[in-house]
């Protein structure tokens, strides 16, 4: 015979604070997301098998080059001298800057060569050629 | 007399706020565009800093205006670059691969050639600047 009759309570996980946790997550992600404010140009990036992902997104600045050779930085159309001036200021501001060249696959290499020379002039030595993944063997 | 009315407890149901919040999280996760920051890295040399190299330590890969790739005088196809560079690297680990691309060549071809050098694990890649013709 049992001495005490233990009242069995149904087991429960407290769920009152899940909403707070979720909103905290939302706020955290909203604060840490970098919004893409640049429109850029319409480009068709070339494909490469050795494509790597960049980790530090905040240090990246883009140079867009479309099929016709038009260059924009931060949605401003610039010429080669403009590339030197703008990039020189950007590098002075942030020495860790990585320049990503978003160039169309059909542009002449001469244009890219000029941009590379301009970047050397502007002391922006870390350069990435933007590419799309290509399946190996494909 | 009327019976005394019991005061009703006022409450806003909060059981589902968590579900709403998670729904929002999932919505934003699904609609956000993942970073497009990907590509092929290269570190440029400072302007005017020319490094003298022994002739035997340079392998020149050139691309002509028609998008044809040559190593030395031999015309090769793009997928062959990887193998040739790998063989040359195994013979001489100090090898510097110079990529010389014509101004008129399409950028696409240059990237494909550069890609092959990366795949061949060539560490020292030099992009030879080309003058106006």
**Shape field of chain B:** rod-shaped
User: Which pair of chains forms the biggest interface, and how many residues does each contribute?
Assistant: A-B, 52 and 46 residues
Q: Main sheet of chain A, how many strands, which sense, barrel?
A: 5 strands, mixed
Judged by helices, strands and strand pairing, the structural class of chain A is alpha/beta
Gyration radius of chain B, in Å: 31 Å
How many separate helices of chain B?
Answer: 3
Q: What is the share of helical residues of chain A? A: 25-40%
Shape of chain A: elongated
What does this structure look like?
- The complex is a heterodimer of chains A (138) and B (133).
- Chain A has helices at residues 18-32, 80-93, 109-121; strands at residues 47-48, 52-53, 60-65, 71-73, 76-78, 98-103, 126-130, 132-133.
- Chain A has 138 residues and is α/β, with parallel strands linked by helices.
- Chain B is α/β, with parallel strands linked by helices and 133 residues long.
- Chain B has a five-stranded mixed β-sheet with strand order 4-3-2-5-6, with helices on one face.
- The termini of chain B are far apart.
- The model of chain B has no long low-confidence stretch (mean pLDDT 82).
- At the A-B interface, helix 1, strand 1, strand 2, strand 6 and helix 3 of A face helix 1, strand 1 and helix 3 of B.
Chart the SSEs and their pairings:
The complex is a heterodimer of chains A (138) and B (133).
Chain A lengths: L17 H15 L14 E2 L3 E2 L6 E6 L5 E3 L2 E3 L1 H14 L4 E6 L5 H13 L4 E5 L1 E2 L5
Parallel strand pairs in A: 1-8, 3-6, 6-7
Antiparallel strand pairs in A: 3-4, 4-5
Chain B lengths: L16 H15 L6 E6 L14 E6 L5 E3 L2 E3 L1 H14 L4 E6 L5 H13 L5 E4 L5
Parallel strand pairs in B: 2-5, 5-6
Antiparallel strand pairs in B: 2-3, 3-4
Helix pairs in contact in B: 2-3
């Amino acid at each position: 015979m049992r001495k005490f009759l233990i009242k069995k309570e149904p087991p429960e996980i407290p769920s009152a604070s899940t909403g707070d946790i979720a909103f905290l997550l939302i706020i955290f992600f909203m604060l840490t997301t970098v919004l893409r404010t640049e429109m850029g140009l319409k480009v068709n990036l070339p494909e490469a098998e050795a494509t790597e992902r960049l980790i530090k997104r905040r240090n990246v600045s883009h140079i867009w080059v479309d099929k016709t050779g038009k260059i924009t930085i931060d949605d401003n159309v610039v010429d080669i001298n403009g590339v030197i001036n703008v990039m020189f200021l950007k590098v002075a501001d942030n020495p860790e800057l990585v320049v990503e060249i978003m160039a169309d696959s059909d542009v002449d290499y001469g244009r890219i060569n000029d941009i590379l020379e301009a970047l050397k002039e502007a002391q922006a030595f870390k350069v990435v050629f933007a590419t799309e993944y290509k399946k190996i063997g494909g | 007399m009327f019976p005394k009315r019991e005061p009703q407890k006022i409450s806003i149901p909060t059981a589902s706020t968590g579900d709403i919040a998670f729904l929002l999280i999932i919505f934003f996760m699904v609609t956000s565009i993942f970073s497009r920051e990907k590509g092929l890295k290269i570190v440029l040399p400072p302007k005017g800093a020319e490094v003298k190299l022994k002739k035997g330590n340079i392998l020149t890969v050139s691309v002509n205006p028609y998008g044809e790739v040559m190593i030395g005088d031999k015309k090769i196809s793009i997928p062959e670059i990887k193998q040739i560079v790998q063989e040359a690297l195994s013979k001489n680990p100090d090898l510097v691969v110079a990529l010389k691309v014509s101004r008129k060549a399409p950028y696409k071809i240059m990237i494909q050639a550069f890609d092959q050098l990366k795949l061949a694990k060539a560490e020292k890649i030099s992009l030879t600047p080309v003058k106006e013709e």
